[in-house]
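Minutes, project check-in
Item: structure for the 308-residue chain
Input as provided by the requester:
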Amino acid sequence: MLKSLSIRLVAPSGYCQHQDAATRAIMRLSQQHRLENTEIIQRREQRFAGSDTERLNDINQLVELVSLPDIILAVRGGYGVSRLLDQINYAGLQSTFNGQPTIFCGHSDFTALQLALLSQSELITFSGPMLAGNFGAETLSSFTENHFWQLLKQQHYTINWQDTQVMNGCWQGQLWGGNLAMICSLIGTPWLPKVTDGILVIEDINESAFRVERMLLQLYHAGILGQQKAVITGSFSHSSPNAYDQGYQLATVWEYMQHKTGVPFINHLDYGHEPDTVTLPIGAQATLIAQEKQRQLQLSGYPSLCNN
């Protein structure tokens, strides 16, 4: 059982329109843990969670903290991190958090910050639940909650799931990725880490199958996708085919991209914008095993709270 932890909120993206969900999350988490910086939840400028300066300060002021929090948790995603990437104090963050078991956690738009931190500061962060959408859900997913806390308090963690296709193999490499649209938005910039022989994990929301394929082809033509050992696909919420697609769907995309690139696509991991999502350490070491329809992801080399 983890002792009471300090959780500091950051809001580098969109305004939290679901204030009731955020309030519910604060009530839940504060039953055991200490929450900091909660005043940012109501902050707003246009569609953003405050001005660019305010949202940037959420990140850069971490360097100046006298006492580091155990967890830095994003309030929500949306859009906004991309505006900040060229002004973040990467050297300061690297110096402050190097060797410190602080957990940066979020997903969706937060992916851009996570990949930039990996590229510029060599910091491993966590693609997982956020304050409003996950911890503030009307019914808190025990699946999501258990995977989050279990991963954070162990130095090694294994995730098991079942796929629909028969495949056998074992691949090892650095785990990286997150939201597919945000990954693609960083192509050609300094903020995309140069990972070769890695295991790329992807998820997204509100992207139909052809848009997903187009983004994967962009990664392929940029010389990135073909350098990976494997791709793990999570949830692609609200991407159901329509009558025009005539059977063209995400399964078609995975099969096509696997054939084109020679990179195996391992599917159906509960990860992304659905209520049930695992937490993944972005930048950690991973071993991916496929045996018939069983899948296993072994994770190591990431910050943990096991000593807290």
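Outcome recorded: The chain is about 30% helix and 25% strand.
No further action items on this chain.
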